[in-house]
Amino acid sequence: MGQQENIYHHSFSVTKELRQALHGHKSYILWFTGLSGSGKSTIANMVEGRLHKKGISTYILDGDNLRKGLNEDLGFSSEDRKENIRRIGEVAKIFVDSGIVVLATFISPYASDRDDVRKKVHEGEFLEIYVKCPLEACEKRDPKGLYKKARIGEVTHFTGISAPYEEPVNPEIIIETSQYSIEECVLQIIDFLKDNEHLGIDN
After folding, report:
1. So what's the pLDDT on residue 94?
2. Is 108 one of the annotated active-site residues of the chain?
């Protein structure tokens, strides 16, 4: 008997649209992708702070944090990376259904995995933010000391060194953290959300 047999979808009376109305804004995924050290978590943290001040309900899903819980059984092979993003995609989809804006900060090196998450939600509910930063700049920052370890072989399957990163082809937003300040990058994202009516009626 297949794993999906005898499983039935239940529909409930409180819908995503009703939850969005309760929160007073749309719900969607802000998916931050980029190399380690590019600034994903730092910028997402500041964006969430801005959204919070505007009365928007948010939650951050951070790669390192979730690998200490939900995904603690996964490594960094291509198969485990794929499963890591699949699980996060499902969690992010639940947040969207709950009427909350979710900010997901993951290297997510494979374009097909990011596209799979996009397909889980409706059009306009997945906003890919490419946190673009040259490898040399990320390696110079090296906030966690991982590039140094990767260069001497202490860390394997490391994106940009011993594992590939597939740049987004057509992301909704590109922020270049080696060219602009954190504040300027955050403002670029907020302006995009405002221009595309993602900030609610009063924002």
Report:
1. 97
2. yes
